Amino acid sequence: MRIGIVGAGPAGLVAAIAARQRGFAPTVFEQAPAFARVGGAVGIQCNGLQALESIGVLDRFHPFIELTEAVGLEAPPGRRISYVNFAEVDLPIRGFGVALRSDLQSVLLDAARRLGVDVCFGHRCTNVRAGAGVALTFENGRTETVDLVLACDGIHSVVRGSMRFHARKHPVNEAYLRVVADRAHPDRDRIGEVWAADGRRAGAFPLPGERTYMFCSVPIGRWDDILRDRLGAWVESWNDLGPVIAAAAQGVRDWSTAVYDELYDLRVDRWYEDSVVLVGDAAHAMTPNLGQGANCAMTDAVVFVNLLAECRSDWRRAAERYEAIRKPFVTRIQNAALFGGRLAAFTSTPARALRDLFFLAGSRITPLRRASMRLTAGYNPAEQPYLTAGTLRAPESGCYRDSL
Questions:
Q1: Distance, CA of 376 to chain centre
Q2: Helices (DSSP H) in 36-127: which residue ranges?
């Protein structure tokens, strides 16, 4: 089966590696001329680590990722209202890690090329047409016909827009920066996030090589003005969120490398149509409040490819099962991420007091705390058979879903 994968982000490259390992013929098409090293990092949760392990690249990725088991939430600085330690939950892989996105993509690209996957840079998809196969048209004039397309091209997916998918994209009216500080995280007991009384948010997480990943909120559409006219004062304004955030902000050498993102929430009625399957942000872009965007995307890729192998290349049956397994769980994550963002934005004193009591009470109720950690970790029991390391073998007849 010839599989055209549009987009060479984590979802696309994981899909390509998994597909090649399972005997398919994937080709990846990426609009960028090459990968660039930018200031953004990515959080890797349990499900993301499982996805990387299942395709055999986790060991190669370990030098680039800083793993931790415990993460806290402070509001205001110095007063912890939530603390999670993944060591207390029975998960396939315990912990939470942070790595540079460029390092993740470099490891995945190298793994894909070692398997002989053709990764075509400089291929901006402009149209998709289903017929006898699926025809992909690119801005450079190339046209490619494949048996199946995996749309891994993000929230603004051209593939999704070219087909009959019904999508609802909602702006969240928030913007964030992601950047790397060239100094070590100053206090490993205070890894996590801070919610300020005025609605601002920031987080600091350790990276390998004595560096720190920082994210912080920024007024929508104002980052260029801040960077040009008042960067010094803006950096100093983070001092009131405590010494960890202040140290991270002051340790950034070049704020122009920060990645600016405006947040959206995307829901798509169905994730497959006419030999096209949506994967990752093309199907379910979410706010980053649980750190699950890239993890859900990589999990999508592995789960679908394994189902495709089990269903003997019957893409429609695989896609039906993929949506049945993944969509309800991903929707829960999306809803929880949206809810968390709304809570973080509270600025009135009574509302913040009630919110903080809610978190403190929840952290003391063991079943509730552990359920929350499992959701944050992306642990979905229904998809565990499809995140097992190694190649899954197709049954003698039919699709595995018939025997569930």
A1: 12
A2: 46-54, 58-61, 101-114
